[in-house]
Write a structure and sequence with these properties.
The chain is mostly beta strands. It contains no helices and eleven strands.
């Protein structure tokens, strides 16, 4: 199947910036939507931002104007630039991707999650 490997999390002070990366690997035929979700302690996982192959983006209201999602289609990699971070942005951030893999017989749809990367914003 498809593996997603995230990097770039860490500890930052309020007002600071972080950049997350997520690279997909495997027998990929095509990656469609790539996105970032987050889950804070005691809360449900929520969408942060998503981007299509053509570059159409969608952002959650709390991050609009502060976060920017982008992708490199040639590398099947998605990025999340996070600026003006706030303590309420503290969460585990998960990468998500869906698309098509080269199956043994026919191409097969997939959806995969990364292992998560911790982002902590101190006040």
């Amino acid at each position: 199947q498809v593996q997603l490997v995230e990097s770039g999390g860490g500890l930052v002070q309020a007002g600071g910036s972080l950049r997350l990366s997520c690279a997909a690997s495997g027998r990929i035929f095509r990656v469609n939507v790539m996105g970032w979700y987050r889950q804070a302690p005691g809360k449900q996982r929520e969408l942060v931002a998503a981007i299509t192959t053509g570059g159409i983006t969608n952002y959650a209201d709390p991050v609009k104007g502060r976060f920017t999602i982008s992708r490199d289609n040639a590398k099947d990699t998605v990025y999340l630039q996070m600026n003006s971070l706030k303590p309420e942005d503290t969460a585990v951030y998960y990468c998500n991707a869906d698309g098509v893999v080269l199956g043994d017989v026919i191409p097969t749809p997939f959806q995969s999650w990364g292992q998560g990367t911790q982002v902590t914003v101190s006040s």
